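Re: the request from the purification team.
They wanted to know what the chain is likely to look like in 3D before they choose a buffer screen. I agreed to run a prediction and write the result into the notebook, where they can find it.
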Amino acid sequence: MPFGLSFTNPFALLLFPLLAFYFVWLAGRSLADLSPARRNLAVGLRLLLLSLLVAALAGLQFVRFNNDVATMFVLDYSDSIPPATKEAALEFVQKAVKAKRKDDRAGIVVFGRDAFIELAPSVADNVGKIQTVTSSEFTDIAAAIRLGMASLPDGAQKRLVVLSDGNENLGDALEEALSASSNDISIDVVPLTSPQRREVLLERLTMPSEAKIGEPVEVKVVARATQTVDGRIKLFRDGKLLGNRNVRLGAGKNVYTFPQTVTEAGAATFEARLETNKGEDTNAENNRALGFVNVQGKPRVLLVSNEPDLTRFLTGALAKEKVNVELRGPGGLPSDLRGMQPYDAIVLDNVPAWDLSARQMLSLQSYVRDLGCGLVMVGGESSYGPGGYRSTPVEEALPVSMDLKQMQYLPGGAVAMIMHSMEFPDGNEWAKSVCQQVTRQLGDNDYAGLIIFGMDASQVYKGGMLKVGPNRNYMLTEIRKINPGDMPDFDAALNVAYDGLMKTNARLKHCIILSDGDPSPPAAGLVAKFNNSKITVSTVVINPHDRSGSQSMWNIAREHGGRFYEVRKPTEIPNIFLKEAATISRSAIIEGAFVPQVNAESSILKGIGSTPPLLGYVGTSAKTTAREILKSKEDDPILATWQYGLGKSVAWTSDARQRWSAGWVPWSGYSKFWAQAVRWSMRGSTSGDLQTNVTIDRGRGKVTIEAVDEKGNFLNFLSPKARLVPPDYKGQDLVLDQVGPGRYEADFDARQLGTYLVNIRTQRGDKISLQITGGVLPYSPEYGAIGTDTYLLNSLAERSKGKLLDLSKAAEVFA
C-alpha cells in the first residue's frame, strides 16, 4: 500500500529559506570562536530543529494511499419498476461486479417501502438472483441510501450506485444525498426508464371542506392519461351512485366538474371512479379518488333493527319529537367509519351480536370513542348478554357489562359440551375452538362442563360442572389438552351431561354436542328425560362423512329444542359460539312488573315525572364510571349513561316494545323520554368558524385549521384537540400547534391505504364544537407514478458529487 507526504498549510514552507539564511548568518557571528567542525555541527542541529518547526507549522502528514473501493448497489424493486426493467437493473449490477478489480468490494441493497441488505460488501465477483422480498407498494429512496451508507466498510473509498426511476413517495432522498456528500460518499445514479405504458388514473377529488344543506357544491375530478382515451366517470356520495359522464381524456391532466347539491347533514364522502375499455389502461388500482365535505344541518340518527314492525313504536316516538331518524336492518349498518360518520347517533334496538360482523362492531366502537358520536342500545331478549355481546367491542363502548356482578342472588345458566373425535385434519381443533369461545362468552355465575369419550364417557374438569368465574382459565387450558376418542353412540355422554347439569342450581340448562355425526342417536327415553327436565340440546356437525350424519345431528337438535349447525370452514365458528353462549345468557332475563327507581339526575329525565311499570329487563352490571339513572328494585341498571372517549353511550336494559314496555308505549312521556335519551348521546354541534383540510403526501398527513369568526377576525389561542382514526382504527390524539394567525397544524404518519378521519374539538367559553373531516389514500402513490423523475435523479448525483451512468455501460462503474 503506497505512502506519501502532504501539508495542510503548505505556504508555511516559505518561511524555511528565510529563517535558514538568518540562522546561517547569525551562526557566522555568534559561533566564530568555535572550530569549523563544531560550528558546522551546531548550525546543522539548528537547521534540523528549524525544519521540524516549519514542517509542524505547515501541517506535515504522512498519507497512506488506499485504492480499494467499496460500492453498494441500491436497487429499486418497487411496483413502479416493471419486471423487465428490474431484470435489466440486476444484469447491470452483475456485469459491473464482474468488471471490478479483485480487491474492490461490492454489495447490494434492495428497497421498496423498506430497505434490506441483499448482499453485504465482499470481494466476490458473482451476483445471483435477488432473494429479498420487500413491500413494493411504496418507494423510499432515502431509507435505502441510509442503509447503503451504514453498510459500507471503513478503510476504503465509499460509493453508492442507485438504480431507480426516481419516483419516491416516502422520505427525502435529496436530504440524504447531502448527508452522503458530507461523509465523502458519492452517489452515482443509473436512471431506470421503461417503455411508455398506456395508463389513465384519477389524481384527486377536490371540493369545499364545508357546505350547508341546499348549497351548491362543485366536485372536481382531476384525471391524468398518457394517451387520448375514452372513458366514463361515475360519481358516488356515501356509496350511492349520483350519476356518470362519458369523457374523452387527452394526454396529460384533465379536470371535470360535477355540480352537486347536498341535501343531508353530516360529513359526506364523495367518490369518483374511472372506467375505460379493456386494453386502454395498465393499472386499475389508481382509477378512484375520494374527498370529504362537512355539511351543516339537522342531526341524523340511524336506528338498526331486524324487526321493523316491532320497532315502529320507537321510530314513531322519535319522529314525533322531530328527530331525523333512518331505519335499517343489521345488514344496513355501515361496516366502516366513512359510512357511519354522517350520523350523529346510532340506536341498536334488540339486535343480536351474531347479526353484526366483527368489522361493524369494531367500527361502531371507534365511531363513539374516536368520532365523538352517540350509541344507544335498547334491550330485549336478543340484546346484551342474551344477544352475545359479552367481550365484544360494542360491550366496551357501553356503560354496562354483561357480567352479572351485582346479581349474585340470581342463579346463572349451565352448559355441558360433548366432544366426539373428528376423523379429518383440523376437525378436533375446530371443535376445541367452539368450546373455548363458548367458555370465554359465559358469565362468571354460569356453569360449564366438558365430556369426552375414552374407555367410557367422563367429565374432563375435576369436579364435573364448575362455576366459570373462578375456573375460566383452568377450563381453557384443559380444552387445549384434550384428545377425545370415538363414541359408538351418544347415550353414555348424554347421561353424564344430564347428571352434571341436574346437580347445578342453574336457571337454564343446555347441552352442546360437537361431532362428525357418526355415533348412533340417543334412545327415545333419554330424549324424553332431557325434555322433561327442560334441558335443550344444540348440535354442531363438523365436516360430516355423508348426509346421514348431518341428518342425525339435525334430528337430535330438533327433538331437544336446540339449534343445528353444519361447519365446513372455520370462519363459520364465531356465529356458533355467540348463539350458543347467548342461549346460556338467557338466564340473565328478569321478568316481572316493577317501577324503575330514579337513582341520579339526568337531562334525559327532564320534564318527566313518575313512569309506568316495566315488565322485564336484561340483567347487566354498571361499569365503574357509569351513571345509573334508573334502577330496578333489585338494584340492577335499567338506564345507564357514560362518556366513552370523545362520545357518549346509553344503555336501556328493558325494551321499547310491548313485551316489557307495554305500559310505556301508550304513555304520554314515551316520545319525550326516547327523544331526550337519543339527543343526549349525539355528538356536539358543528362550528362554522373552522375551515379544516387534511392532505396526505410522501407518507405523511397534515391537518390544517383556519379559524375565523363571523366578523372575519382570526381566532387565536384556541388549543383545539384532534383525534385521528387511521384505517386500522388505532386512534391517536394529535397536537395542533398554532403556526400563524388563526392557523393550526398537526401532522401524522399516513402510510396505510384507506380513510383517515379526524375529529376536531374546539371550545370557546362554554361552547364546545365537534367537527369531522378526513383524507383518503385510495391507492399507493406508487401507482400514480408515470415515467422517470429525471430531476430528482440528476439532483441526487449532483448534490453528492456523483455522476450519471447509463444502464448499457456497466463497465464504467469501476473504470
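For the purification team: The longest helix spans residues 36-58.
Please add any questions underneath this entry.
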